[in-house]
């Protein structure tokens, strides 16, 4: 079993509750990575709705920072009819709700096969010409064990921040894989949209950028292989910024789009 | 009192429930306009949290089509601490939930005054050179009484669909005001992001495009006057499309960003 599958596993503990164990391998900055938590919630919903296994849209509101250890996912199916179901989900640890979310699930395999995407696939140099996350300094990898879960190869134009020369374009892009070799699926895309460093790094603002809200739309089942992930921000104001993310699969399909609202690093 | 204020009014009926009356003047296509419903929900939350009156982020999942008549907004404050509060909200009619939503509220006036927006304000010709929504044919105005609530002046390049010549760029932009002269505020921006015709009109796909999910971020208190509203889509696939919306105020500030996932018109 891949590490990803073991560490996002959920076990039914009641009619609509699931137990999970948050691994400290996904720690970063002030808590456990939000994308990892979203994948756990996403997996619980997927197991709860076997005929509608794929997230189409997930909106998560982050209420408090998670810690490694036991957690519970509590689900409430708000509508289930036709080809889609909408579910409310809470991720809790003890009395504290960490994330409250709404999600609409369906079966991506049963959607139409029309594709009229006008979005352009981000350009990335070949994988071997990009900058691997494994080159991060030892002290970075110590405070962000999360980085060891991924194989990320950054666009050379978007890693100036790592050497004190941020590009200041508000863009970070990279090739992305799970380090354990686990291929992407619709639920793991919820992780992929919140895995790269905050795009504010590229604006010369290092540090943790807590997410207030993140909505992801999963638009297709990803093909196996490397994903291209691109983060961009256009509106840094009032101490907050939006971070848009696109994920493209190895077949050149735009498989996920997300936007989050986050606080600027202090 | 302005029509907008009268028709979005809510009355407390319990510790966390509010009554509203959905006006049929906001009818369009298969139901009542989603932006109007969101403004009613937004107003209930605002009245419930007087110290945090402004939506920062609202995510709405549309479960069933609303009809004119009585409705109830039921709120559940999920977290209230520091400068923000997160609330779950349902809009119901009888036993049917129409919309379930999550929202984080705060006070936009207390955010920092830094603005580092790199987004470019959309270009629109002067108001008097744009195409007024009042020029819509009588039959359109009959099926969409909604249009009479707004004064919209469309970019001439983005109304080809009205004469059978859609621009096919996936963009619609317009000057926007409430027809009753009511100035914009943070809650009414929730209406502004879902007021224009679906961007699929510009792709030669007329017809109602039901929203599955819409998330709006309100980033600043809008200045009085005309708003610029721009809708764009980049990923029409699998029978669905995303619609991104930006709202700019008369002072040239990007005051709201939203994205919705909707079904293509049939």
UniProtKB/TrEMBL annotation, chains A, B:
It comes from Nocardioides marmotae. Residues 128-262 form the Acyl-CoA thioesterase-like C-terminal domain. Gene3D superfamilies: Acyl-CoA thioesterase, double hotdog domain (2.40.160.210). It comes from the Bacteria. Residues 23-106 form the Acyl-CoA thioesterase-like N-terminal HotDog domain. This is Thioesterase family protein.
């Amino acid at each position: 079993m891949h590490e990803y599958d073991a560490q996002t596993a959920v076990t039914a503990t009641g009619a609509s509750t699931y137990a999970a164990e948050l691994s400290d391998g996904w720690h970063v900055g002030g808590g456990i990575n939000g994308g990892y938590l979203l994948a756990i919630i996403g997996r619980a919903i997927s197991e709860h709705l076997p005929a509608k296994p794929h997230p189409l849209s997930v909106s998560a509101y982050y209420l408090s920072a998670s810690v490694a250890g036991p957690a519970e996912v509590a689900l409430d199916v708000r509508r289930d009819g036709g080809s889609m179901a909408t579910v409310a989900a809470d991720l809790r640890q003890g009395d504290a709700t960490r994330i409250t979310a709404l999600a609409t699930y369906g079966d991506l395999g049963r959607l139409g096969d029309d594709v009229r995407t006008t979005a352009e696939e981000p350009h990335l140099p070949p994988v071997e010409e990009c900058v691997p996350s494994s080159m991060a300094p030892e002290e970075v990898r110590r405070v962000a064990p999360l980085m060891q879960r991924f194989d990320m190869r950054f666009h050379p134009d978007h890693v100036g921040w790592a050497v004190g020369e941020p590009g200041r374009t508000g863009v970070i892009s990279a090739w992305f894989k799970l380090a354990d070799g686990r291929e992407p699926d619709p639920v793991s895309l919820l992780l992929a949209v919140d895995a790269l460093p905050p795009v504010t790094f590229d604006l010369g603002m290092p540090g943790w950028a807590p997410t207030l809200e993140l909505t992801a739309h999963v638009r297709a089942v990803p093909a196996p292989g490397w994903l291209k992930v691109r983060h961009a921000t256009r509106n840094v104001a009032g101490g907050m910024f939006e971070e848009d993310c696109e994920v493209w699969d190895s077949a050149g399909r735009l498989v996920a789009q997300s936007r989050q609202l986050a606080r600027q690093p202090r």
